Amino acid sequence: MTRKDLHTRLVNNGTSLNVLFFGTAEFAVPSLMALKASHHNIVAVVTQPDKPSGRGNKVAFSPVKNAAITLELPVLQPKRVRSPKFIARVRLMNPDVIALAAFGQIIPAELLDIPKYGPINVHGSLLPAYRGAAPIQWSIINGDDHTGVATMWMEPTLDTGDVLLSSAVTIEDTDNTLTLTHKLAAVGADLLVATLDNLADGTAARLTQDDTLATYAPPILPTDGVINWHETARQIDCRVRAMYPKPGATATIKDRRVKVWLTVPAAGVVDEHAIGTILALTKDMHTVLVGAGNGTAIHLVEIQPENGRRMPADAWARGLRLQPGDQFS
Asked: Which candidate, 270, 322, 327, 260, places its Cα nearest to that of 297?
């Protein structure tokens, strides 16, 4: 039976699940859109409270709230989902499924026990790899050639529940957190709908995670973006791409901190003692070539000085009167 045939049968049989959707970040938006386009019913969308943003501290809606408003869906924004008042409200709603993607709060057991078809999470890794808050960033930092998405039966512990469906995604050398998030979010949206279809049809299979293979992806801190020039050019490039678009990779030279937005590892071997040293300002490529670990070198392509705009690295270097031999701290 094809997926289209299964959809037709479920709709004809009236087997649509009432779903309470939890999500906040951009990663969750495609899942919400796909769920809305499916035959399942969204009873409400739960997202994080609005927060001040930008220099003017204007109140900003989460990406999921903006999408929910566009889709004309009811929105709930509890400060704490573990509050008795919110849990009581969910009990009254009596959803068949709680579906979560990039929400931002730990869901307590009292909520997980409410839906009869289960609490489902869309996670941006191939579990048990990269349990935690930042699986996409850490897969890039670590130089992995692939990652993926898994739908998981939620438990009160950190991403330890049974895996329902998963799909692998290639990490290209040009991928950063923004582009890889878009890829994984699209895959996750399809997996979520397929998972709900399987739950409704009674065909969902649960695969227990092997805890001995688990790795962890803690939240990204600003210090994770500080470039260590003793790393190889590829490792530095992976770190820069993982920090895009935020918090951004950083480096310091002449007591001035800059953000490094784009890099390209250089071909060939350089003096292994030139770590963190400017080797050349390339006129043809408009880059700054810097020595890195193990005799490698990396082109800085796009730089942003503090309180400045993003610009080609060679223009930034000329403005600061940098020259070969100057060294990053």
From this structure: 270
